[in-house]
Amino acid sequence: MSEKLTPMMEQYYRIKQKYKDALLFFRVGDFYELFDDDARVASKELGIVLTSRDKKHAMCGVPHHAAYSYIKKLIEKGYKVAICEQVEEPTGKKLVRREVVRVITPGTVVEEELLTTESNYLMALFKREKVALAFLDVSTGEFFVTSVKNVDEAICEVLKYSPVECLIPESFEEVEELEKLVKNVRRIEDEQFNLKRSLEVLKDVANFQALELSEEEILACGAVLNYAKNSLLFSKPALKLQKLERSEYMVLDSTTIKNLEIFRNLVDGGRRGTLLDVIDKTVTAMGSRLLKKWLQRPLLDVTEIERRLDAVEELKEKSFVRRVLRETLEDVYDLERIITRLELGKANPKDLVALKNSLKAVGKIKKFDFQSKKLRDLVYGMNPMEELCSLIEKAIVEDPPANVKDGGVIREGFDEELDELRKAKKEQEEFIKRLEERERKRTGIDNLRVGYNNVFGYYIEIPKSKAKNLPRYYIRKQTLVNAERFTIPELKDREEKILAYEERIRILEQEIFERIRREVVRHAEKVKDSAERVAELDVLCSLAEVATLYNYTRPKVNEGFDIIIRDGRHPAVETTTKFVPNDVNLTENSRILIITGPNMAGKSTYLRQVALITILAQIGSFVPASYAVVGIVDKIFTRIGLVDDITRGRSTFMVEMLEIGRILNNATKRSLILLDEVGKSTGTKEGLSLAWAIIEYLHELGAKVLFATHYHELSKLENELAGVKNYHFRLKEENGKVEFDRKIRRGFSKESYGIKIAEMANLPKRVVERAYEILNSENVNGEVPEIVEEISKIDVMNLTPVQALVELERIVRKCRELKS
Ligand SMILES: Nc1ncnc2c1ncn2[C@@H]1O[C@H](COP(=O)(O)OP(=O)(O)OP(=O)(O)O)[C@@H](O)[C@H]1O
């Protein structure tokens, strides 16, 4: 078959050979065409018509000007797209040279049209003794690496950063775990995680030597960089690597991130109703990304937290200044991405104008005067780069086209040679105008007209009825329904001149644009620095805005142990419900709170709000409370709600115990632990014993614990362990009607409201009455028969001596209680 291929198709197959795993967008004139299997896939995924070329090759195509919308769909579905361009101007019949100029994958996108404002991370994972994770957002140049102890912790990082594409060695076993969280997991041959190759690509990263990375980290970093390099984004990456130490930030494990609905809600996985959603009032894309990072990494350093709080307080108080500042911040475009596109040579003239306008806004921000150290430092260090700004202003027109090749980008008066060429071209055009006038007179045809199109160039158009007896130098070019088109030697001559000028203008404009781009890139670091400052100011303004809007107060954050909150609220629930505030006192002798109360009373909400207030305090935000003291928490663990993991053949109980095991093994005295109905997923007796033993363990550890439970028996722990205190929620009963009052109270409530809630839920009256009847009958209410039954169930022969002792102790305790 190969000898019958046209030269173009031969060229196609040669190129396709190198990009087998990508859909090849092959530029033919104004279209990108896809062939064979690529065409079949694309036509199905994009809903476009499948045709054929030369009746041999399946084919479909998309117009080049709309290509991004199609590429976006394919990328979102996880495909790689290789863009093959015509890299020379087509001349005559000779086959035009074509090359792949870019391979686009979800994690290597820099094109504005293909991105959202969120971070777009490409991640690589490498596991040996530890697990190293490298994250690269090529669109902003953000690049960081971190190490964790095991795959569980790695999953937690993945959940936090939500990478869009993930590279793992083929031998990595826990791939299913990852695939639940990341749409595009790519298995890379193990040899690709190669030390020599990684070191080779990493040597271009300026600060690499200074970082002391582990081998795992080097391999993970090398893998992401090589992948980005193979997508033809850069030959030498201009990146700075950051090594994140987990010990510098509060650790939020994956269940906590999910349960507290920090980034995604539990309803549909979206952003609505999440903590991020509530506190994100940023006005720039950079600010919005940074705020998310702050939530991903709450601080442990009290000094820095206090600095942020000072800044938020000042901005909260100066509401007018804040408003003006936020309006100015709105004028700053996504500088991080613009400067990255400029560095990668993928920027367009509009990017330069946006950069200039942003720098002007930066200049205005620099003039703000603040008291707090953080705000002063941020504002003072802003660099508006007036010279660069005025260079762009002088060089680029205010509203340039998106593509330099379209021309009209460089302002008049900026470059003498360009002005000369434009003038010369204009003279020719004016000559043609005069020529039109002259020919009208010569021929006596009033509606003779000179026109231009891309295919035929300049022509003289004359209505058909009058296209007779024309001068001999008129040469026919084209016949239309109502008109004839001609050229004359003079017009042809001028046209050639105009085309030659146009070509020189085009090249010169591109050269000037490139010169300015290089000049801007020389100052890239300064632009990036201002971008970081803008992002931080925006986040601080957002926190001040939220504090004002929702009436938050400044927490007192310290190195102490206590968490004391007055009138605390759940930041998200309070935006949709009339919220009843509650206090919390977590101190050395009240560090484990056993919280009982009916279903739906508000126990889980209470647990969550304490954790959310702690997180807010440690990112430097005000908190939803009237007063709050927060002693730094190193890790937050949660076990809320029952989750099955059937896919892994684990029962609800197994999952629960695995999670509890992880918590008990990793928590420290400084940790905050939220446990909701632990033990519920197994039999009452066993569940209760486990809950009991877990509380004893955590009491010894000294951690702060909120333990919501239906096991009323646990309330006895208050008398046995110094740090345990009982709290409860109850129903308000007025005139025979019950409702939730959502107030937490000290002590333990014996009342059980199950049937009352059933009544509230409109169960048939007969059922409710019968339930009360049974409840009040001897068998149910009497506790002696219950004990007898329990003792008879104990399988004495199969108990170890220790277990037997535990059982005995429990029974004795119960009997004593009954006696009293
Ligand atoms: N302090 C509060 N003020 C107002 N509404 C609240 C408050 N706390 C909780 N709620 C509302 O009550 C509902 C039930 O709360 P939550 O889920 O915390 O109850 P629960 O005691 O944990 O219930 P269960 O034991 O069934 O899990 C929530 O959906 C919330 O909207």
From TrEMBL:
One annotated GO biological process: mismatch repair
Residue span, DNA mismatch repair proteins mutS family domain: 671-687
GO cellular component: cytosol
Superkingdom: Archaea
SUPFAM superfamilies: DNA repair protein MutS, domain I (SSF55271), DNA repair protein MutS, domain II (SSF53150), DNA repair protein MutS, domain III (SSF48334), P-loop containing nucleoside triphosphate hydrolases (SSF52540)
Coiled-coil parts of chain: 411-441
InterPro entries given in the database record: DNA_mismatch_repair_MutS, DNA_mismatch_repair_MutS-lik_N, DNA_mismatch_repair_MutS/MSH, DNA_mismatch_repair_MutS_C, DNA_mismatch_repair_MutS_clamp, DNA_mismatch_repair_MutS_core, DNA_mismatch_repair_MutS_N, DNA_mismatch_repair_MutS_sf
Keywords attached to this entry: ATP-binding, Coiled coil, DNA damage, DNA repair, DNA-binding, Nucleotide-binding
Chain positions recorded as ATP binding sites: G597, P598, N599, M600, A601, G602, K603, S604
Cross-referenced Pfam families: MutS_I, MutS_II, MutS_III, MutS_IV, MutS_V
GO terms, molecular function: ATP binding; ATP-dependent DNA damage sensor activity; damaged DNA binding; mismatched DNA binding
PANTHER family: DNA MISMATCH REPAIR PROTEIN MSH1, MITOCHONDRIAL, DNA MISMATCH REPAIR PROTEIN MUTS FAMILY MEMBER
Family per similarity comment: Belongs to the DNA mismatch repair MutS family.
Function per UniProt: This protein is involved in the repair of mismatches in DNA. It is possible that it carries out the mismatch recognition step. This protein has a weak ATPase activity.
NCBIfam families per the UniProt record, alphabetical: mutS1 (TIGR01070), PRK05399.1 (NF003810)
Name recorded for this polypeptide: DNA mismatch repair protein MutS
Organism: Ferroglobus placidus (strain DSM 10642 / AEDII12DO)
Gene encoding the protein: mutS
